[in-house]
Amino acid sequence: MGRNVVVTGGGTGIGLAVARRFADAGDDVVIVGRRREVLRQAAELLGPKVRPLPCDLADPDAVEGLVDQLPRRIDVLVNNAGSREVAAGAGPHALVARWRGDFERNVLTAVLLTETVRDRLTTGQGRVVTVSSIAAIRGAGSYGASKAALHAWNHFLAAQLGPSGITANIVAPGTVAGTEFFGDRLNESELVRRAGRTLVGRVGEPDDVASAVFFLSSPEAGYITGEILHVNGGEILGR
């Protein structure tokens, strides 16, 4: 029997690869994100095991409205939604917009949904996997700080869910090509530079992260919780 899986930010990049991995394993997957058409196209690409549900996960009213459309039993919740806030200009107002935007898009999107569906996570085998970033360790202003906040929250969440046999872990990718995160900044020369910072001589692909998420969601990972799995080819070592 397949599992019920919810993947946020499942329309592109890492989230799309994660959704594909679960769907290929025979699981029923709900992908959630802000862009209705992007989600629709992703679900069409991935097949009948995948259902799209548009929602702004930083909006509590939208999350409340989403809940009735989600499975009554959730075996795996993957918190992948997030982005970097780009606030134009300088000064206090732009600073606040940047920090608040990164907190809302990277922290609240995970916390709001997880807390709202906690009672639906399957006792004894439920999995929560949250996608963070190498920026949480190496530092990257408001974006890195928001991802680091997820690490602290995950420790708390793991302690809360552990008595019910539910695990909560973080996957923290390094540079990953094939996503919308970098826009046009990840050109050929930048790819070469970033590959040179790793120990394996290449940047990551969405499937690299999806494999880590899939493992932490598996029965074999039932004794792993409160952990951060770094998926960065050794980039974190600062070569």
Automatic annotation (TrEMBL):
<dbReference type="InterPro" id="IPR057326">
    <property type="entry name" value="KR_dom"/>
</dbReference>
<protein>
    <submittedName>
        <fullName>SDR family NAD(P)-dependent oxidoreductase</fullName>
        <ecNumber>1.1.1.-</ecNumber>
    </submittedName>
</protein>
<keyword id="KW-0560">Oxidoreductase</keyword>
<dbReference type="InterPro" id="IPR002347">
    <property type="entry name" value="SDR_fam"/>
</dbReference>
<comment type="similarity">
    <text>Belongs to the short-chain dehydrogenases/reductases (SDR) family.</text>
</comment>
<dbReference type="Pfam" id="PF13561">
    <property type="entry name" value="adh_short_C2"/>
</dbReference>
<dbReference type="InterPro" id="IPR051122">
    <property type="entry name" value="SDR_DHRS6-like"/>
</dbReference>
<dbReference type="GO" id="GO:0016491">
    <property type="term" value="F:oxidoreductase activity"/>
</dbReference>
<dbReference type="InterPro" id="IPR036291">
    <property type="entry name" value="NAD(P)-bd_dom_sf"/>
</dbReference>
<feature type="domain" description="Ketoreductase">
    <location>
        <begin position="3"/>
        <end position="179"/>
    </location>
</feature>
